[in-house]
Amino acid sequence: MKFASALSTVALLFVSKSIAMTWEEADAKAREWCADLTNEEKITLTTGRENMQGICVGSIDPIERKGFKGLCLQDGPAGVRFAEGSATSWQAAINTASTFDRDLYYKVGAAQGNEFYQRGINAALSPAMNIQRAPASGRIWESYGEDPFLAGQVGIQVIKGIQSQGVIATAKHFVGNDQENNRGASSSNIPEQALWEVYIDPFYRAINDGSVDSVMSSYNAINGTYSVQNKRLLTDVLKGKMGFQGFVMSDWWSIYDVEKSFGAGMDMDMPGGKYWGPDFVGDSFWGEHIQECIDKGIFSQERLDDAALRIVRSLIKAGQLEDYPEVNLTVDTLTKENIALNRKVAADSTVLLKNDNKVLPINKKVKKIAIIGKDAMPATFCTDMQCANGTLPLGWGSGTTDFKYVIDPLSAITKRAKKDKIKVVSYGEDDAKGGAAAAKDADLAIVFVQADSGEEYITVEGNKGDRLDLDLWHGGNELVDAVASVNKNTIVVIHAPGPVNVPFIDKVKGIVFAGFPGQETGNAIADVLFGDVNPSGHLPYTWAPREDYPTDVKYDDALPGGGEEKTQYDYDEGLFVGYRWFDKKEIEPTFAFGYGLSYTTFEFSDIVADMTEDGLYVTLTVKNTGDVAGAAVPMIFLSFPESVKDYPVRLFKGFDKIMLEAGQSEKTTILIDNHDLSYYDVDVKDFVKPEDGEYTVYAGSNARDLPLKVTVSAAVGDENEPNDSEDEEIPDVSGNDEDVKEVESDEEAGEASVEEEQKNDSADVEDEISADEEPKKDVASADTIKKVRKCIVKKN
């Protein structure tokens, strides 16, 4: 059998809903539209009115005189919330990031955007772009991992995809909402350089490269001042220095006043009520109190004019003031194309962590498989997924969806095994003794285990959003130990929001990390286990024991939101988040940032680096040295010149994804633009690109497997000098040499198996996306050089 291409594409059977409009064009039209607005109408635009008691989670009242229908705002990153099963329940954002595939990032955004558009939803409350600084943090599955460059790159394409459908994307949560405990009564105390380079940088990319229409502020304070009251960040930085032209909305019920919040630069109060509940519909901290403050001179008329203008400007840029669909959250968009795309991304995001003795993919020599654990069983549906019973497709909270169905692993594996005449037995509990008994006589035992996390307003099994620890839930470690003790061919499949403890790592043959794959989870896992898809997912974070990370969550007693007393989160690690910390302290992680195995092997060679006015071009050759087709992800890391002091050893700065047939080689060129060649100088108060010294460029498959190295002068035009990579002490933990899987070649089997498996739930379709809809890879060509944005460096 030939592998189904890891980069085979899924058609998008819809096109851009509006001709792209520049901010300048939108501004001119918005000023004309707003010219005759009364203050009462401007206040209507800024103040949520139904307090989440209406159809949408957030809404703005109509202005009938202007023919304005009002606004509907709706969660979220995994698809349309409260759609009663009529919309796709997508994979978690962290899974999307794990594909390291810009084409898929865009297609996910466009497909989701289309589902919001068809329902008349004006603003999708997505993407989430916070940083995974502590692995136990509850909402890490809603964002894109630990690295700001990666978070920015995913965000750019998801935003472009959403907005291609005429829907407003919302980059959130600005900024520092990186843990759940007392999020509404906490202060993220972030050093200035880290604030810019780590936490603001994804939003910088969302604004400058994604042209995002709206930004949502965070619950927490930053350095003592709540985000919604932080004039420096909202007005001086976001709207001033970063040039954001859209509007800033609050997170839900994060506003506790009018003077400080509206005066600081907040443009929209969501959902409008002072607190949750029907008693506060129409009872807002804003509303008529805005006019009272203007009358008292607390803030100017211009502040209200600007807020209204920003909202209308975004609506006009999105093409929403004419012919926008009426709000109907239950329009059926659960199409075979969306199902196929979810299944593909779920499979491509699956990370193969261990594969000793080529135990995977499952071959026809296997006659009996035992499926063990409750996580392999049908999911239990509960409000906002506030239960962990059965397989876990998503975490809990506002970032989840209403599922129409979830394909459970047992059903999918059983169905797929029949094709190869493999018998499947199962034990659907987490009891160690029962699991061992079921696995004892099987040729292969697959144990499904889980851990869960989510948003602060829900507590699940004692976990109030943030996880209490990194252990598997429901006795998962004991279950794996028991099965492995009786079956030498044990594979563990993990559903979890992020890293978990794996004390059994040396006792099992294989470990597959599925994350939170959404509704097609079972089919996607079966695709990978049986080799219908060659795994190509990579970790967007570092995986290690909890005590090895530089920081952690806290479990303080609950404090009143918006109060003066706050839980203090000191970001003392500064720039050294994730792999940067492990490099600095020379700690060997369990699995490195970017780690992910394949059923084939890859070789990287012939690295060349060229510094130009547009940035640094890195060219290398990637070869598939194995026997089957697969997708390689070459990653570029950069060391800055020695003049940049107290800086990370290496920074992730570029990647590509390349599908290669067995034996095939391909050259790729990756651009690192001038912004990513710069660091934030706290004295200059801006990003500065070093003019002297040398950058060292590393290339490889993950943060600890970088076999290629070359130095290049920071000065434009100087020749680069290749280095002997053997001198660099970076351990090779790729494991690829021991993880090649030989399979039979069959030209049509890959596509046929997908079509057979999915039937009405999925479809193999050709990629018909037009050139102007496709996302641009971070790959240089003669046509793109002149389009690269140049970094403007300010000096004293």
TrEMBL record:
Top-level lineage group: Eukaryota
A Gene Ontology cellular-component term: extracellular region
Annotated Fibronectin type III-like domain residues: 632-703
Alphabetical list of Pfam families matching this protein: Fn3-like, Glyco_hydro_3, Glyco_hydro_3_C
Biased composition regions of type Acidic residues, renumbered to the chain: 718-755, 763-772
InterPro entries linked: Cellulose_deg_GH3, Fn3-like, GH, Glyco_hydro_3_AS, Glyco_hydro_3_C, Glyco_hydro_3_C_sf, Glyco_hydro_3_N, Glyco_hydro_3_N_sf
Enzyme class, first EC level, given as a word: hydrolase
Keyword flag Hydrolase: yes
GO biological process assignments: cellulose catabolic process
Tagged with keyword Cytoplasm: no
Family designation: Belongs to the glycosyl hydrolase 3 family.
Name of the protein in question: beta-glucosidase
Organism per entry: Piromyces finnis
